[in-house]
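Re: Re: token formats

Sure, here are both.
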Amino acid sequence: MQDRPLPIVVLGLLSAGIGAALLTSGLALLGVAQVAFLVDANAAGVTGSMVGVAELGVGVASLVLAFGFWLRRDWAWGLGLAVFGLSLALSVAAVVVGMRIGTPLFLGALSVLMIWMLYTPRVRALYHH
């Protein structure tokens, strides 16, 4: 078994956790938005659907990113910046759409932590940046 440095383990596990949370949150938001749209066809249902689909996409990308971090792929560093930046933007969008503030605030804080970790000298060196 290969020994992995602690930052790689943390990045991989947190990316997988964020991905799972975004998939769950995206499916929930998509379901609620569809019910809202069926009850009263309004812009909130459409906006909620768009944010839900975006969260599903970023959730899948985060799971792919966890794989890249775990296997120390060079592309994972750049993809990590993009995915966590999008995750942060989606957290803000989810609050604007009307989702309860707890989950988006937690995911936003984790995204900020992950972006900070990616810029630490040790992680940049591990991913050749």
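Second one below.
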Amino acid sequence: MRGTEHSPQHKLLERLAPLIRELERNPDVEGVALVSRTGLKIWGYTSTSMNEEIFSAATAAIIGIGERTTKDLGYGDLNNITVVGEKGFVVMTQIGREYMIAIASVNKTKIGYYMLMLQRYSKMLSKALEEEVAKEELSEEEKALLEAIDALEE
């Protein structure tokens, strides 16, 4: 697809790469999904015991319910959701205004660990996304200058 390497989703996935690699190596993690607030699956990983499409769709549905609930109750924007069952849990955290990331795990003793991990990445990625949006609003001259500065820093 032409131009996807510069899309916000592509840049988000580039920034998520360290987290994704860490989660994929962890035997406790059964699934990870990056979804848009509208329910579009951007990226997903699931173990063989979990259906990726169902996990992504359920994540999007839960996010929709959570957003309506926080709005209807006057609690502001949705930040995260935790769903705990007998055999595991799912933690979902927002990344900017457009995306959510979800982790499913069978090790319930690590709920706090994954919540903290997602919050840390969420803050970092939200800031990075805001910077990308700000860059998109710049003139071509300003973009060229920023790219030159980025190249010098590398």
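The CA atoms of residues 1 and 150 lie 25 Å apart. The chain has one domain: 4-153.
- S.
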